[in-house]
Each structure stands twice: as C-alpha cells, then as structure tokens.
Amino acid sequence: MTEKLTTRQQVQKREQYTKWMNRSVVAGCMAFFVSMAVWIVTDQQPVLFAGLGLYWLGALGMGLGYWYSPVSLRDEFEQQMEWEANQAVSAFIAAVVVLGFRQMSFSAQPACTPLLRPFGAQSGAISCWCSSSEPPTGT
User: pLDDT tens digits for 82-102?
Assistant: First the structure.
C-alpha cells in the first residue's frame, strides 16, 4: 500500500494484523490438537492428516498476515526484546552444550557395553559389562 498512515492508524493496523495472525495460528494449532484427540478415539489416519493440513493453513495465514500487512508488525521495542531473548537463549544453549560435552568426555565412569544375554536368569534384565570390573553375579 502506498497510502500514508498516521501513527494512530499504523498502531491500529499493527494490532489488527497481529490479532488476525494470532487467531490464525491458534485456530491451526487447536484444529491439530482436536484432530489428534479424534484420531485417538477413532484410529482413522485421514483425520490426523486433515488436522495437520489445517495446522499448516494456520501457519500460511500467519505468513500472509506478515506479507500483506501495510505496516511493520513489530515495533522497535519488541524487536529489541526479541533480540535480547535470542541472545540469552543462545548463550544458555551454548553453555549447556559445551559443558555437557565436557562432562561427557571427562567422565570418571567407565563405559559399559550392554550384552545380549542377561546375567542371572532370575532377573531377566539386560546387564552391562564394564571394562574395569568383574562381570555381575546377578545378586
């Protein structure tokens, strides 16, 4: 759109398109969850595929809202908040991955390999043979 909008009109359009997009996504998600519930009861796969199709129609509705909106749907404050949240989550995931791999690689516990036959016929569970110890006795 090439028309000039006042600040109030921009805010109203932003709220209107955001509301439409949110309703589209919620309707798609709810349709998918309802179809999963119906699928559990009826065990008919086409119901599940129909729910998945409605879910993607909701996502398509959100995308069309972004595409056809005459104004930016996120203001500067929302963009700044999203950027800060993204940085915090990325730092947390990186710390968990780095510390998790470090913890796994320097573990003091020996690696166990599961055997196909259980030790001790009374338990019936699959045991593991650790390289640093004797085989379990089944007690």
Answer: 899 999 999 999 988 888 766
Nearest to 33 by CA among 106, 25, 132, 69: 25
Name the nearest CA neighbour of 25 among 71, 65, 68, 77.
65
Q: Which residue has the tokens 């998790």?
A: 100
d(CA 15, CA 20): 9
pTM metric for this prediction: 0.51
- Alpha-carbon distances of 113 from 117, 126, 139, rounded to whole Å: 12, 11, 19
Other residues' Cβ atoms within 10 Å of the Cβ of residue 11: 13
Phi, then psi, of 120 in degrees rounded to 5? 80, 110
Residue 102's Cβ-side half-sphere holds a number of Cα atoms within 13 Å equal to: 6
Quickly list H helices, the chain.
7-42, 45-68, 76-105
Separation CA 64–CA 17 (nearest Å): 10
Q: How far apart are CA 27 and CA 34, in angstroms?
A: 10
Q: Positive or negative, the Cα torsion across 51, 52, 53, 57? A: positive
